[in-house]
């Protein structure tokens, strides 16, 4: 039978078609998966200073095996004072770093195993802010890359170029770890433009 005589069933038409919009998926038309504005370097509300004080010296505390002790003494802070998406993202980054440092950071004894629990001072706000952001409470690309960068020179010809980016936080404090995260940031920025 000749091809022109074959009848093809037509596909059902959707009466409620709506096109996908980037903003519905938190994707910036300028920076792709990166936020349009630089991530917060610090939470503005002084209520969150207990978190930020740990992050100020995070690598030193981790290296000196102080994270578990400090986290156990830290108060359980609520997340209701995180007013903006940027503040929630910053809280997620901070709590993700603290949580994983608590699990893997020893108190000084080389034989001390990884922790099988998190203290309420980390777990309660981390789960709450994760729910707000619709993420799982685990270190992910958003925590270490997308929401963990800064522009070094605002007036640079290409502000989002790899050589003009820095990380806000790393676990090791090493340049290698920073570059590992920043390559992803630079690729996201370049591909979005």
Key terms:
193 residues; mainly alpha; two-stranded antiparallel ribbon; disordered N terminus
What do you see in this structure?
- The chain is mainly α and 193 residues long.
- The chain is built from 7 helices and 2 strands.
- The protein has helices spanning 49-56, 58-63, 67-73, 85-104, 120-133, 141-146, 175-192; strands spanning 149-151, 165-167.
- The chain has a two-stranded antiparallel ribbon.
- α4 crosses α5.
- The chain is globular.
- Mean pLDDT is 89; it is low at 1-10.
Number of continuous helical runs: 7
Give the spatial strand order of the biggest sheet: 1-2
Shape estimate: globular
**Rg computed from alpha carbons, rounded to a whole number of angstroms:** 22 Å
- Class derived from helix and strand content: mainly alpha
Mean pLDDT: 89
The portion of residues assigned to helices is: 40-55%
Order of helices and strands: HHHHHHEEH
Unreliable spans are 1-10
């Amino acid at each position: 039978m000749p091809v022109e005589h074959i009848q093809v069933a037509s596909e059902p038409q959707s009466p409620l078609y709506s096109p996908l919009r980037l903003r519905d998926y938190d994707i910036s038309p300028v920076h792709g998966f990166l936020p349009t504005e630089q991530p917060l370097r610090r939470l503005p509300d002084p209520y969150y200073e207990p978190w930020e004080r740990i992050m100020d010296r995070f690598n030193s505390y981790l290296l000196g095996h102080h994270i578990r002790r400090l986290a156990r003494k830290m108060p359980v802070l609520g997340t209701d004072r995180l007013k903006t998406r940027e503040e929630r993202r910053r809280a997620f980054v901070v709590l993700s770093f603290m949580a994983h440092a608590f699990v893997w950071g020893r108190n000084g004894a080389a034989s001390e195993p990884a922790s099988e629990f998190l203290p309420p001072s980390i777990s309660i706000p981390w789960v709450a802010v994760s729910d707000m952001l619709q993420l799982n409470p685990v270190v992910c690309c958003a925590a270490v890359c997308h929401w963990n960068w800064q522009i070094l020179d605002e007036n640079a010809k290409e502000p989002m170029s790899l050589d003009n980016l820095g990380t806000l936080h790393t676990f090791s404090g090493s340049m290698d770890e920073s570059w590992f995260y920043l390559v992803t940031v630079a690729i996201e920025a370049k591909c979005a433009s």
